[in-house]
Each structure stands twice: as structure tokens, then as C-alpha cells.
Amino acid sequence: MKINQVEELVGITKKNIRFYEDQGLVTPNRNLENGYRDYSLEDVKVLNQIKLLRRLEVPIEEIRRLQTKEISLDVCLHEQIREFSKRQKDMDILSQLCQEIIDSCDELEDMDVEKYLDDMKRLERGGVSFMDINKVDVKKAKRGPKIAAVAFIIFMIAMIAVMVLGKMSDPETPMFFIIFMIALFVVAIIGVCLALSQRLKEIDGGEQNEANKY
């Protein structure tokens, strides 16, 4: 069967399916006549296994080890249980810390910040993990530029299509003018892609890190 059919059956995107292929987790046969991937019911079964394990947050490498029998399903899932238990314990401790702050003060100005930061450092030394909120902020900061860039690129592509259709409907339009306008649109698209790339780099390693110093 084709990848579109597999996508519908399994409920994961073609991009994810190809990623799992690149990782060697699923290896569909190739149609000898056209070279296209030919997925079997066994491939669908494997992809469903991967889908379940990923939803249980099993890392890709662990899935690979499961498939090659380096570890058993029992060992793999018990490791996940330990990870979830630790995470739940961390959340309980953080909830207790929040409640302690609520009980000790009513306003932000009354909070003994140094005490609670010291408490958090002590908890970290004891093995408690805190979410890296900076990663969450970075992800949110990237969303706006990406949406704006995609919208602009779609608009430019639409303009190129309009120019091509205009030439087809009016052959007398100078070809030089059409090529010149399309070239301008292409340059604009390239410029936006470069600007987006630079902006994402700034968010990843520039302004966010600078903000963390203060």
C-alpha cells in the first residue's frame, strides 16, 4: 500500500513515517517496477507499535533496542514507570513549594525570594528536576516569525502564479517584464527565508541568552 493509505490507517503524518524509516525502525519494501515504497500490513503493525511507544514517551533509541531484542518490553516499560514516578514526585515537591509560598505571603513584594531560590537549589542537588522555562519561551518566540514568513511566502507564490496566468491569457505581455517580476518575487522569498533563519538564530542563542543574564 502507498504512504497516503498508511498515514490514514495509522494516524501519523507522512513526515513522521519517513522519519521512522530514516531511523531504521520500519523498512518497507520497494516496488520493483517504479521504486516506490510498498507498505505491508506488517509495516502498519510496526508503525502502530512505534506510535504507542512514542505516546508513552519511549525514546527512539529504546524502541530500536526493543526491535533488535537488546532489551525486553518489560525492562523498557519499567524504566518508563520509574521516569514517570520520578516526574510525579518532582511535581508533588513543586506543588508543596508553591503551597508553602502561598501560606507564607500574600503579595509578590512579601515573598522571601532568596530563601525559595536556595530551597530550589537544594532540591536540584537532591535530584529534583525543574522545567527549563527558557525552552518554552524560545518555542513561543519562534512561532510568530514563522507564521509571518509562511504567510508572506504564500503571498509571493500566489503573485508568481498570477503573473504566469496573466502571460498565458495575454501573450502580448512582454516576457522580459514577466521574468523580471518573477525574479523580484523569488528574491523577496529568499530574503524572507534568510531573515527568518537569522531571526531564529537570534532567538536561540542571542537575545534569550542575554535576557538570562539579568
Map the helices and strands.
Blueprint (H helix, E strand, L loop, with lengths): L2 H8 L3 H9 L6 E2 L6 E2 L2 H15 L4 H8 L5 H32 L8 H13 L7 H37 L5 H31 L1 H6 L2
Antiparallel strand pairs: 1-2
Helix pairs in contact: 7-8
In short:
This is MerR family transcriptional regulator. 74% of the residues lie in helices and 2% in strands. It contains nine helices and two strands, in the order H-H-E-E-H-H-H-H-H-H-H.
Features:
single chain; 214 residues; mainly alpha; Multidrug-efflux Transporter Regulator, Chain: A, Domain 2; 3 domains; two-stranded antiparallel ribbon; 74% helix; 2% strand; flat; disordered C terminus
Rg of Cα set:
26 Å
Strand order of the largest sheet: 1-2
Q: How much strand?
A: under 5%
What is the number of independent domains? 3
Number of strands: 2
On the 0 to 100 scale, the average pLDDT is 85
Could you say which overall geometry the principal axes of the C-alpha atoms support?
flat
Structure in words:
- Residues 1-69 form the HTH merR-type domain.
- Pfam families: MerR_1.
- This is MerR family transcriptional regulator.
- The chain crosses the membrane at residues 147-169, 175-196.
- Keywords: DNA-binding, Membrane, Transcription, Transcription regulation, Transmembrane, Transmembrane helix.
- This protein has 214 residues and is an all-alpha fold.
- It has three domains: 3-67, Multidrug-efflux Transporter Regulator, Chain: A, Domain 2 (Orthogonal Bundle), CATH 1.10.1660; 73-125, no CATH class; 133-212.
- It is built from nine helices and two strands; from the N terminus they run H-H-E-E-H-H-H-H-H-H-H.
- It has helices at residues 3-10, 14-22, 41-55, 60-67, 73-104, 113-125, 133-169, 175-205, 207-212, and strands at 29-30, 37-38.
- The protein has a two-stranded antiparallel ribbon with strand order 1-2.
- Residues 206-214 have low confidence and may be disordered.
